[in-house]
Amino acid sequence: MSDLVLEVEHLSKLYRKGTIGTGSLRQDINYWWNRNILKKESPFFSGQQDALSKSAQFWALKDINFQVKHGEVWGIVGANGAGKSTLLKILSRIIKPSTGAIRGKGKVSSLLEIGTGFHNELSGKENIFLAGYILGMKKWEIQKRLEEIVDFSGVEEFIDTPIKRYSSGMYVRLAFAVAAHLEPDILIVDEVLAVGDIDFQKKCLGKMKEASNDRGRTILFVSHNMQAVNQLCSKGIWLDRGKMAYIGEAQEAVNAYMSNYQSNIWKQNWPVPEEAPGNDQVRLTYIELIPRFSGASETIDIRTPLQVKFRFFNYLPNEFLVAEMVLFTTSGECVFDVSHAPEKFSVGWVEGEVQIPGKFLNDGSYSIGLAIFNREKETLLYKDDCLQFTVADYSENNDWYVKWWGIVRPDFPFAIRQVND
Asked: How many angstroms separate the CA atoms of 207 and 196, rounded?
């Protein structure tokens, strides 16, 4: 137990739609009396008050339980509105929970919004000292790290300028530099890093990894960048509509979250030919995406080879046919268009397959369309969005955590060598 730095028990946060407070003076006084004098949970928040209709309740968080040990890095994932930011605000003591308890030890530093704790009329340097004081640092401690903070932020040229003249990127650079360098025991970081450019994101993620590995800092990290969560975090929580849908290893939490929210169509089957896509010439009756997973993971990532199998019925005797598969991004860009040489087929079933090698596609969401042509290149059948799937990122022994450019990400031979003039 001495290893624990944070313990959350039965944490819940209830909001009431359309009103501030409970909706009546009597209930407000009752709530205050129970919480502050009697030191017990208010019946208003236990859902036992008839005056509070369930339709007016909104549980941003419901019965959250977890323990964080010293030096652990926790990733918190979930869709927008899942309660991630609410949880971090409660842990940062910005808002109070409705029920439950939080026990922790050590200094907590939070970066939840751009310029949290900054004053617009003060200069960048003055805000560094202000933020340090708020975190409980002594003046000499801040001065000791001032040069390092300014250098990391990259705003040296404007450090004496009032921050009301800073861009949003300059704001977040300085805010993160302060939060990360004043050596808190627990660092809480929300998705605010998405505001920075690629170089800054890489810099920040590297700094958090260093703080955890080398200095034993405890970090709670909310991000929609699943690659960063996988690389930085050892433990993970998936929040779904205010409830803990999964808690465990970070990779497993990410896999569970992505599997639930991806709008995947890996297989389509039309057992009745008359209802299948097509016409009196050809009809598509089956198409399937088959990932060739390696290891325990069942998430398609950039390493996963893919096989597409399909079947159609040909009604044309002795016809030369060409099958064509087209891969699109979700924005409608064509990634590739592959086909085979024309072949002669009799009336009956025709099967086909296409192999997509691993280490070819970049991470992202894709859809597959299938077309059948005759020898004169007349379209006999075209079915778009037959299959939909998402490719996750993966990086091993690599400190690059941000999105790679391009639609494809092939693993071409690439070498550099030392030469002597």
From this structure: 14
